[in-house]
Design a protein that fits this description.
Structural class: alpha/beta
Strand content: 15-25%
Number of strands: 14
Low-confidence stretches: none
Order of helices and strands: EEEHEHEEEEEHEHHHEHEHEHEHH
CATH class: Alpha Beta
Distance between the termini: 18 Å
CATH topology: TIM Barrel
Largest sheet: 8 strands, parallel, barrel
Number of domains: 1
Length: 365
């Protein structure tokens, strides 16, 4: 049965961004950028425009600098060549009537020396190894031992975020999403398991959220708040992060973000790509504390998404893997059609196969 009347399929204003429905493409790393300049693949305009029926497209995470890169073949948004390549993506999406924001990324310790400037150590709040894997052109490897950032270096990284936001605007994006989730640099600063600093960026919750807020404020000096969102994952242990009191931490962060009137808060509810209820956390109260747009993510079915938007627990719902194998996911959800299953072997790296060659529904006769 069609659910065209459901709010999930109706327009909405997310900050300054007018979206045609409440379905978002979640940021999905696909590792198809072209070296040596880490520019988006020539196939990226087709890939994103195929999914432009979504109310909002959030790009794959894109590094703000070479230092911010943690995996082979992920795109950047700091050089002129990258801006030019992304411009072809935003044009293709806009030509299809879509809206697209870019996710700004610094991986921190989730990297390898071979990806870093001059083969240096990855940077982190504290010199604590991630004990996880990344991959480089030769295959999967252990992440490299990080070094702790000097206090004097932090302002430069904040400036890199602002520069990336400026480049995103030049590339034609409708806004940016700050990646503060899943154990990458901003998340590493916030968590007491990964941040053992004794300067103004460590210790208390107020100090540990300082970097996130400085990044946000730097971007807000480039873009209006209605074009800026942020993604968090309060209870996710992705990339070996944890906090002794995630409720206190993230409610403190959101109280500060609420003052800045951002376009949206995008939350991974539960473990990234895993259980939604691994740790107790009240996402609805967090959403109310934020006061602005709220994008819910992680394991949503059609029924859950319809209910979340109808009940006011979310303004948009972001879908990840289902969008890989169903470029027409919005239509499939609208008519309750079966969803194609993706081939996980083609998720990361490669060419068109498993990227731009998934079929859409056969048009009704």
């Amino acid at each position: 049965m069609s659910e065209d009347s459901s709010p999930l399929f109706q327009p909405f204003k997310l900050g300054a961004i007018e979206v045609k429905n409440r379905i978002a493409l979640a940021p999905l790393t696909r590792n198809r950028a072209i070296d040596p300049d880490t520019v988006p693949s020539p196939l990226a305009p087709l890939y994103y425009s195929q999914r432009a029926d979504a109310g909002l497209l959030i790009t794959e995470a894109s590094q703000i600098s070479q230092q911010g890169q943690g995996y082979a073949w992920t795109p950047g948004i700091f050089s002129e060549a990258q801006v030019e390549a992304w411009r072809t993506v935003t044009k293709a999406v806009h030509d299809k009537g879509g809206k697209i924001v870019i996710q700004l990324w610094h991986v921190g310790r989730i990297s390898h020396t071979s990806l870093q400037p001059n083969g240096g150590a990855p940077v982190a709040p504290s010199a604590i190894a991630a004990k996880t894997k990344t991959f480089i052109p030769s295959g999967f490897v252990d992440t490299s031992e990080p070094r702790a950032l000097e206090t004097s270096e932090i302002a430069g990284i904040v400036a890199d975020y602002a520069h990336a936001a400026r480049q995103a605007e030049r590339a034609g994006f409708d806004g940016v999403e700050i990646h503060a989730a899943n154990g990458y640099l901003i998340d590493q600063f916030m968590r007491d398991s990964t941040n053992k600093r004794t300067d103004r960026y460590g210790g208390s919750i107020e100090n540990r959220i300082r970097f996130a807020l400085e990044v946000t404020d730097a971007i807000l000096r480039v873009l209006p708040p209605g074009k800026v969102g942020i993604r968090i994952a309060p209870t996710s242990a992705a990339n070996n992060v944890a906090d002794s009191n995630p409720t206190a931490l993230f409610f403190s962060l959101v109280a500060e973000l609420a003052k800045r009137k951002l376009a949206y808060l995008h939350a991974v509810e539960g473990q990234t790509g895993g259980a939604r209820d691994a740790l107790p956390f009240d996402y609805f109260e967090l959403r109310k504390a934020f006061g602005g747009g709220y994008i819910a993510n992680n394991g949503y079915t059609r029924e859950m998404a319809i209910d979340a938007v109808k009940s006011g627990r979310a303004d948009l719902v972001a879908f990840g893997k289902p969008f890989i194998s169903n470029p027409d996911l919005v239509e499939r959800l609208r008519v309750d059609a079966p969803l194609a299953v993706g081939d996980s072997k083609t998720y990361y790296g490669g060419g068109a196969h498993g990227y731009t060659d998934y079929p859409t529904l056969t048009p009704a006769v």
